[in-house]
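Before relying on records like the one below, remember that each one covers exactly one chain. Contacts with other chains, cofactors or solvent are not represented anywhere in the record.
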Amino acid sequence: MRRRTFIAGFAAAAAPGLLRAAHENGAAEKPVRFGLTPVFLDDHVAFLRVWRQYLESKLSRPVLFIQRGSYREISDMLRQDKLDFAWVCGYPFMRLRRQLRLLAVPLYQGKPLYQSYVIVPSFNTDARSILDLRGQVFAYSDPDSNSGFLYANYRLIELNENPASFFSKAFFTWAHRNVVDAVAAGVARGGSVDGYVWETLQRDSPELTARTRVVEKSPEFGFPPLVARATVAKAEFEAVQQALLAMAGNGEGRALLKQLNLDGFAEGTERLFDGIERMMKVVDRASDAAPA
């Protein structure tokens, strides 16, 4: 498994007053530990620095962004109390819902919803659906991603196909951007990708998405949420939640949201992820029924 680790350190850039106060109290204040994967913020070091500084100014506490290469690593760190909050996907959230608490849901194009896209290289003018990719090489993003894995498997099962044998080869890229890269380069003849990520790349890197073509779009699902481990203190949970919900209400927050191609954050409800949970159960049953 490819593994990337990125830590946006807080000590050197924290507000001088904050560090001075902590020193006078005899100990550095415990940071808010926030987990991320490359799904959204791969290599956006400058953005993370500004977002960290923004959150620190609202929370009056240091913030530590910790990036790992997969949802599984982030989920494990949440369960082991090595993270306080994280930006995950609706699929692992449904798997771990008793151990996690919904913090906020991003608003994309005015709604807390997004879609999964099936893409092919633009030079492949024949493919019209995932069924046309039988026997081809296919790229997934992450085995715990809804849009980058679960939906494509569910779709094939819905079409009475076996996801395990439908493609000649399938592999994980560990980031949606990497799925688009693989399909654009022809390394994969198809891929399953987060529609929000593809649309954001179309805005920021149109020369890349121009080398791909969308052949299927899923129904809408709850947007990948921000979550907290269940043991986070109530006051800390509410402070971080309010900092996120208020971003759309000030200029600095709106500028950060614009970079993310989001409109804001909402509290959301677990019902947003009912469709993901239904697909998860179908795929699990099919996997359990498959010959050993």
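Residues 140 and 172 are 5 Å apart (CA to CA).
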